[in-house]
């Protein structure tokens, strides 16, 4: 049996149902009755960023062998717990990289060229009464990338094509990247006009974009977050935007999704997306297929395709 934590993608649900005995946990309270009946037969959990696999869920299924997450991010999985219990973990890297990088560039473009704001200007009928005013150029900007992994590198490659100067911060210098390495995030922000957040969320990267980093990016700087909401101290971000200490922000992720600080709704220099960085039909199908082929490999005792542990 395979247990899915929450609805994530109908195609994935259907494909899992065709292959396995699928338990849709959102239809069952995880009470002693359900667990007594089914816990022994649940060998796999499929989770996602909305609902992953915490210690409590993992402990509920004593026969659990593998956790598959419909995401590249692992922040909703209790990895130490899985290690300790010998539970395998798989995610969906690579197949989503290009779409997340596209979304990041789209956000940077939307903020700098005021695309969402100008669309609202036309729809509201303001164009017949008023001029829209000027935006800021995106091409040629100094770009800072926090985390030069798969997604960060794909953002860098795109920004390079727009003539941007690329700098990055990461745990270690990537000597072959050809981009300028900043050991300090503060220095990176001070030297960037647009800062992209594309690292994994860990204890070290929680609130890595804090008040000082926001101030270093400054009143003309733009912050783009396609990582996790918790990478940014959100209340600091809101006050910096309200006080004009930061130029603008493009955000796909928030600290308390789906709740977004309402003060942001009034700001024209902010573009807000409902965590859709990977949500194209092509990438969603590829992610679902990767979840399924990992589970099939596991149950056939074959090597996992994208193992984390
Ligand atoms: C979402 C993501 O998890 O891959 C990640 O880490 O944040 C996204 O892929 C996905 O859309 C499912 O909610």
Give a verbal description of the structure.
With 309 residues, this protein is α/β, with parallel strands linked by helices. It is built from eleven helices and twelve strands. It has helices spanning 10-19, 32-38, 55-60, 79-85, 97-112, 115-123, 150-161, 185-190, 211-217, 234-242, 281-299; strands spanning 2-4, 22-24, 44-47, 66-69, 88-90, 142-146, 165-169, 180-181, 194-197, 222-225, 248-251, 270-272. Strands 8-7-6-9-10-11-12 form a seven-stranded parallel β-sheet. The chain has a five-stranded parallel β-sheet with strand order 2-1-3-4-5, with helices on both faces. It is globular and about 65 Å long. It starts with a strand and ends in a 10-residue tail after the last helix. 2-keto-D-gluconic acid (8YV) is lined by residues 8, 48-50, 70-73, 96, 278-279. Residues 8, 48-50, 70-73, 96, 278-279 line the site of 2-keto-D-gluconic acid (8YV). Residues 105-277 form the D-isomer specific 2-hydroxyacid dehydrogenase NAD-binding domain. This is Hydroxyphenylpyruvate reductase. Residues 22-308 form the D-isomer specific 2-hydroxyacid dehydrogenase catalytic domain. Belongs to the D-isomer specific 2-hydroxyacid dehydrogenase family.
